[in-house]
């Protein structure tokens, strides 16, 4: 994305942006035609320099992000979707059979909601895959623009590297966490019970089928559950990485504005009346304004892309937390209760990734306005002060992400969702005690 700014004689600054390919600007910031870089993102190698490469490749392995044009990959995605739909059908059937047993039914519902969440995210990623590809490209573009500036400052470079390490660790944490839970969830029915039990959805006829059929049913429940658990959590980690990187870019912009002085960042003593140094300071401010406008447009696009995914996770996290807490509290089966206690932090952690990232983003965007007070604006030229006022006015409007266009995503919202889950849990408890 290239910025084109103009400065009037009065010192007023205006900036507008055009796509990197020089095409016309779209309302959503989309290019009318895919660029060469957009085509390269279709390959595994094309993501090697991306700040989101770990997230993209992880989702590719799961069948949610095609990095190849091969039809075999689309067959993989279709097979995963089919397995998920079949599992949902079995779960609904099992919940119907045990509709009078609230303990068994809630255990099945927890698994059903988890798989439904993963399938919904898979469908959204496959249907709107061009938007998600573009999101990765624009994220890399925004990051690259400030990376060159950070190379000359060890402190700024450290902030950028810390952000990249955090996103990488977060992405690698997801499969490690799910693998740990799988050790408890998947083999437990085989170890803890004398009778035949399935891992997630119990079926009455399981004791009448052959050992081969029992093994097939066991695998058919385990594979879709773990697959869509990985997809769902992987998508959450992807958007958490996007917000972490965006907050880092705002933090770098904050420090960049704060360091504005006559003569540039290496200047020590102010030289009033030096036109060249005043011009250099004003030019740096114009660059900061362009970057801020680019970040505002970028985060508007992030909000539109993330909106349905975040709403999906909010709804299912509340439902999963409710039924899992019920199982952990009221289940007469100690093994099922133990499994639910181990799983209980998961729905909260998934929605917390959105709330934590978006809240941090909101704080960093508000801090940009405060940075203007810390720069050397007193000795600056009149047009510098006027341009700085424009930046301050825009930065005072916080950048807020929403879920479904209805719910602000921040830390107070996370607390509200926990309260909502507990309210539904209390309602289930009252129904169970009747």
Automatic annotation (TrEMBL):
Family: Belongs to the insect chemoreceptor superfamily. Heteromeric odorant receptor channel (TC 1.A.69) family.
Pfam families xref list: 7tm_6
Entry annotated with the keyword Membrane: yes
Cellular compartments per GO CC: plasma membrane
Alphabetized GO MF terms: odorant binding; olfactory receptor activity
Transmembrane segments: 72-97, 109-128, 170-191, 237-255, 309-330
Entry keyword set: Cell membrane, Membrane, Olfaction, Receptor, Sensory transduction, Transducer, Transmembrane, Transmembrane helix
Main location: membrane
PANTHER family the UniProt entry points to: ODORANT RECEPTOR, ODORANT RECEPTOR 19A-RELATED
InterPro entries reported in the protein's UniProt record: 7tm6_olfct_rcpt
Subcellular location(s) per record: Cell membrane
Membrane topology recorded in Swiss-Prot or TrEMBL: Multi-pass membrane protein
Name this polypeptide is given: Odorant receptor
Highest classification ranks of the organism: Eukaryota, Metazoa, Ecdysozoa, Arthropoda, Hexapoda
Biological process (GO), any one: signal transduction
Region: Disordered, residue numbers: 1-39
Source organism of this protein record: Ceracris kiangsu
């Amino acid at each position: 994305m290239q910025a084109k700014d103009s400065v009037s004689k009065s010192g007023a600054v205006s900036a507008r942006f055009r796509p990197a390919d020089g095409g016309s600007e779209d309302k959503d910031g989309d290019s009318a035609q895919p660029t060469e870089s957009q085509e390269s993102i279709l390959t595994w190698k094309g993501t090697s320099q991306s700040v989101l490469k770990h997230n993209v490749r992880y989702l590719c392995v799961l069948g949610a992000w095609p990095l190849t044009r091969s039809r075999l990959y689309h067959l993989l995605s279709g097979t995963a979707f089919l397995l998920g739909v079949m599992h949902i059908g079995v779960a609904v059937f099992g919940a119907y059979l045990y509709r009078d047993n609230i303990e068994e039914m809630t255990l099945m519902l927890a698994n059903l909601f988890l798989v439904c969440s993963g399938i919904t995210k898979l469908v959204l990623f496959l249907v709107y895959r061009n938007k998600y590809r573009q999101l990765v490209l624009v994220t890399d573009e925004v990051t690259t623009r400030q990376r060159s500036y950070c190379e000359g400052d060890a402190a700024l470079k450290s902030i950028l590297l810390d952000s990249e390490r955090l996103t990488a660790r977060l992405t690698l944490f997801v499969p490690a966490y799910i693998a740990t839970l799988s050790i408890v969830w998947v083999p437990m029915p085989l170890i803890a019970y004398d009778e035949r039990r399935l891992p997630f959805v119990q079926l009455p006829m399981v004791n009448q089928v052959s050992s081969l059929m029992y093994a097939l049913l066991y695998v058919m429940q385990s594979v879709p559950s773990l697959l869509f658990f990985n997809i769902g959590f992987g998508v959450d980690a992807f958007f958490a990485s996007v917000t972490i990187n965006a907050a880092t870019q705002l933090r770098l912009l904050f420090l960049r504005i704060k360091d504005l002085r006559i003569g540039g960042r290496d200047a020590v003593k102010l030289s009033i009346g030096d036109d060249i140094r005043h011009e250099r300071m004003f030019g740096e401010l114009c660059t900061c304004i362009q970057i801020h406008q680019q970040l505002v447009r970028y985060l508007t696009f992030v909000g539109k892309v993330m909106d349905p995914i975040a709403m999906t996770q909010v709804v299912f996290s509340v439902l999963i937390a409710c039924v899992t807490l019920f199982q952990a509290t009221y289940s007469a089966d100690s093994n099922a209760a133990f499994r639910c206690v181990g799983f209980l932090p998961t729905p909260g952690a998934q929605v917390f990734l959105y709330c934590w990232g978006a809240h941090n983003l909101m704080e960093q965007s508000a801090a940009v306005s405060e940075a203007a007070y810390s720069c050397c604006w007193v000795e600056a030229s009149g047009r510098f002060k006027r341009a700085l006022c424009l930046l301050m006015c825009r930065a005072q409007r916080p950048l807020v992400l929403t879920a479904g266009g209805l719910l602000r995503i921040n830390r107070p919202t996370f607390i509200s969702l926990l309260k909502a889950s507990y309210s539904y849990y209390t309602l289930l408890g009252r129904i169970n005690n009747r």
